[in-house]
User: Fold these one by one.
Assistant:
Number 1:
Amino acid sequence: MTEQPYLDDMPDAQGIKFIGTDGWIEVARGYLGCSDPSLVPEDLAGRRPRNLTDEEREAMRKEWAKRREEREQQREGLAFEISAPHMQNFIDAVRSRQKPIAPIEVGCSTNTLCCLGNIATELERPVNWNPATLSFGDDKEAAGHRLYYYEYRRPYSLI
């Protein structure tokens, strides 16, 4: 039997919805919805997670705690979702020239999404992000935010 991803068992994971000028997209584990339903693959359409009742949530939390306790004994060598601190693993990977447990691209895209959320929160407004150019376009306030741009110490530079 294959180990289930760690977040699949979390009762509060309900997904996220992004709203843009040309439409919206909503994602959760095993679900994808968007303003143009024809773009959604059949195997992901129409399976939106519903909000749980308080009783269901409590039952799931108990089951999740039980599964977590069982996994604690089997953690060694499992996928990155349930393993030890990523920073130490990254340092160890650099030293050993081995691949880290989590792909660099996953860490980068996760960090980008978190920073975008923090920038929007601090600016107290939505921000327009272009993932193709990794930029805010004409939004100078967002582009000048401390989480988007960092002045490197000489002689280091990003470009």
Note: The CA atoms of residues 142 and 148 lie 8 Å apart.
Number 2:
Amino acid sequence: MRLGICAAVALLLGSVAAAARSATPPVPAPSFEIYSIRVDGTGLRNVTNSPLDEATPAVSPNGRQIAFVRGIAGNWDLWLMNADGSGQKQLTTSADVDEFDPAWSPDGTSIAFTTAVRDDCFPHPCRRLSVRVVHADGTEVREVFAGGRDGRWSPNGRKLVFETDIDPYEQAESISVARLGGDVRKVVTDGIVAHPVWSRDGRLAFGARGPDLFVSRGDGRARRLVAKDAEEAPEWSPSGRQIAFVTLGRLKIVTVRTRRVRSVVRRAEAFAWSRSGRRLAIFWEEWGRIAVIKPDGRAFHAVLKISGQLDDSWLGPWTWSRDGRRLVYAARIEPSPPPK
């Protein structure tokens, strides 16, 4: 999905060499950068504006900062910047470890993230994964659990839920909950599971057995099936009454109490609830499109069509600005050819 830094450098050097032989200005090598745009389609901003690859932007709870990852010389580290792109600061520096999927704590003081060290696991390569937490000022990086990924905070910020027992095929076989500074307990252990997420009242939603969508208490008990064939990552509505998910390329929403499922839009690869729960952002990575729609399927309107590629690796609850007026995303924009 992302253009490697080595390839980007090679393309850039090739462009410079060509410019030395011709008066035609070089076309810069495209990279994934972080943008923001108003939901009405105006006010497009390139926030990072760098020749490197950036991905997984996550807006802080107060809306003032954005956590993201940046690839330098083939290595991905965690960075932080102000919402306007100023004050960019590197939070992690590991030459042999990649960081990704930042997730803000509810109070905005800490960021959970996943690390990966690539190993050879015959017959397929695998990654040694770890869930870690760092303060937003870059201090006190600590490991929560070795062997987990995709940590998500509980509503009170005292726990993290994440996937564990990752097999060589990158599938998780259990879900665990960790108290920060305390114990780690497996709460789901029956087969392939995916993407556990908290509701605002402390319930868990997760995919399992198929994948189907289940809801349970925070300890994994009192589990019940709420929807069949929920292929892609579920996300609770801010009210905790509904869960949205993608299946067969369609965005659907289930009302948890009644288990009534309705189709919201026919075409979606990923989505993100607004913080008020009144709208959802819809993403088509392949077509480079972003749209906004109400949960009842009404008021659909296109926000953006790019001449390039969207990165939908992070489209969780922090894609929206705090006031619901802007969307933050990563994309690789194909440069226009120079005029002849």
Note: The chain has one helix and 28 strands.
Number 3:
Amino acid sequence: MSGIFAFILAFGLLGAAIFISGFVKGVREAIRQHGDLTPEADWSDDGRYGSSAFFAVLASAVVIALVGFSPVFIYVGPLLAIVTATGVGLAFLIGDRFAATAKSRA
């Protein structure tokens, strides 16, 4: 087993554990809120996700282009996928700390 394979495998297992734990937390929260009969308020999400989405697409395009120059960059693609899944899991885990603020109904 090569060193890069072992690294990606260990990093992938860690990312999968973070994603699964965040996903389970999110599903439990959704099930808990499903039976809640209180009306929902209008939400204002002031998050700035456009720039992070732009950089994610840019990073993907750069990796695809770099694979054309050197085959060693083929390993960066799985790392980007693992980092993305880990980020989604972290978003589920820390989502309630930075919850969007409810607008008051006038």
Note: The radius of gyration is 19 Å.
